């Protein structure tokens, strides 16, 4: 690769934290473009020519469109100063999005509280309707059967998916299942590596690109566990390690890669999944629910 390109780069280095100037990574990409090898050049051309589309793509989709590997996409992102593909997408979004839209994609300056309420609620309703349209009933049935048949279930979620994982964990406990929760990346890795054929895992990740949950799911499958994932519609790296995929269809905003709408959709899928599992378990689930309700009643006045 040519070494003359760096003279065209911005003089200020990109900080290692989250305060990278919005256009810094893009300007570096433009500056390096002429000296890139063919594969990296195709990726750069795709990103530079389709910025508004790229902020809604997964790393897998960018790789497929550019005829490259996911590793090549990530390597190019790091070469231009981003920590990874998700970081580059945030930088792209900052350049394309008005500041107020960092709060919510559809909000405009001067929106009244009533308008804010309407837009936020409408986004949640749309996510539920879209998810209902894409969620495969057969996949839901397979996931419920697979999880019910396991001797032990492990639930994984990182970041904004962690509260959804916690909800799934509690709901499964209440219907009498042996289930463990791991929302720490180190615990996930150890737990997954020690899983076996009698274990099933449920991984929740909107983007399907979180290194921690991809690693945990891969390790669990390599150890012989069966794997179910809840992730947004579209190709992503997590799907390569899944036995069953349950899809949501929450729109990923330009600035926030995991908005509230994604969690609303995930919670609805979790609700449908565990309801199916409870029905499959029949009397055992009813008895467990009755016992857990009695215990929880002691926590209330």
Automatic annotation (TrEMBL):
Domain HTH rpiR-type: 23-99
Protein's UniProt keywords contain Transcription: yes
Cited PROSITE patterns: HTH_RPIR, SIS
Keywords carried by this UniProt record: DNA-binding, Transcription, Transcription regulation
Region feature (Disordered): 1-21
Domain of life (superkingdom): Bacteria
Record-linked Gene3D superfamilies: Glucose-6-phosphate isomerase like protein, domain 1, Winged helix-like DNA-binding domain superfamily/Winged helix DNA-binding domain
InterPro entries: Homeodomain-like_sf (IPR009057), HTH_RpiR (IPR000281), RpiR-like (IPR047640), RpiR-like_SIS (IPR035472), SIS_dom (IPR001347), SIS_dom_sf (IPR046348), WH-like_DNA-bd_sf (IPR036388)
All copies of domain SIS, residue ranges: 143-283
Record protein name field: MurR/RpiR family transcriptional regulator
Organism of provenance: Siccirubricoccus soli
